[in-house]
Design a protein that fits this description.
The protein is α/β, with parallel strands linked by helices. It is built from seven helices and 16 strands. It folds into two domains: 128 residues, Response regulator (Rossmann fold, 3-Layer(aba) Sandwich), CATH 3.40.50; 103 residues, OB fold (Dihydrolipoamide Acetyltransferase, E2P) (Beta Barrel), CATH 2.40.50. Pfam families: LytTR, Response_reg.
């Protein structure tokens, strides 16, 4: 992605709007992989050309509207969706949210709003790409993890970790004495750490269950840190507590 232009697919059944989009995107330095009026065509195109971003009209004509098309595409590939829409009703918005789009652009749009929106999405894609490359270098052994500190890799014993807190594409590994910040998602940390000791208790937290001090109805405490318990994670937490 760093050395090649961002590829954008336009799925829009108004050819005047689509052509205008293509001209503007090309002038901004993006590569337009196609202009398609139908969702079925978009699904096939994505398999062959793998764009980074799809500008998707919500109200496509034909058997598949934009939301249904996005759902079908996302089952096969993780591609950033930006919806184009003149329809701002709440029901449509809620349905579109289920596909976790990167942004919405309201029609009629101007070049500045288009440029800014896509630029923000491209930055998100770069963050994810850079994170993925670093994640591959995270080494977790049976009893330790190696973290970068002062320009070198240092060991951190797993038993010293109190909890892990997520902030977007970063994770903070907190001990009694120091906090290490890794460029890594919480999901990746959850997969790498031994599940016997480390439990996901919230969308933003994994705890070392051996360090648990207080368990309340909606939160827990480790040291003086109050950590919320997500409803979907509570049953797993309670089952793990029974095993220790």
């Amino acid at each position: 992605m760093k050395n090649s232009p961002i590829k954008v697919l336009i799925v829009e059944d108004d050819m005047i709007i689509a052509a205008n989009l293509s001209i503007q995107l090309t002038s901004l330095g993006y590569e337009v992989t196609g202009i398609l009026p139908r969702g079925e065509e978009a699904i096939i195109h994505v398999r062959e050309h793998a764009p980074h971003i799809i500008l998707m009209d919500i109200n496509l004509k034909g058997n598949l509207n934009g939301i249904a098309t996005a759902k079908a595409i996302l089952k096969e590939k993780n591609i950033a969706i930006i919806y184009l829409t003149a329809n701002s009703d709440d029901a449509t918005f809620e349905l579109a949210k289920e596909t976790q789009p990167k942004a919405f652009i309201a029609k009629p749009f101007n070049k500045l709003s288009l440029e800014r929106t896509i630029s923000l999405v491209v930055e998100q894609l770069k963050d994810v790409s850079e994170t993925a490359s670093i994640e591959e270098n995270i080494e977790v052994l049976d009893d330790r993890i190696f973290v970068r500190h002062n320009g070198r890799m240092e060991k951190l014993l797993l038993e010293d970790i109190l909890y892990i807190e997520a902030d977007r594409n970063y994770c903070s590994l907190v001990t009694h004495h120091i906090k290490h910040v890794l460029t890594c998602t919480l999901k990746v940390m959850e997969e790498k750490l031994p599940s016997l000791n480390f439990v996901r208790v919230h969308r933003s937290y994994i705890i070392n269950i051996s360090k648990l001090d207080v368990l309340a109805d909606g939160h827990l405490e480790i040291g003086r840190k109050v950590i919320p318990i997500g409803k979907s994670h509570k049953a797993l937490l309670l089952s793990r507590i029974k095993t220790i």
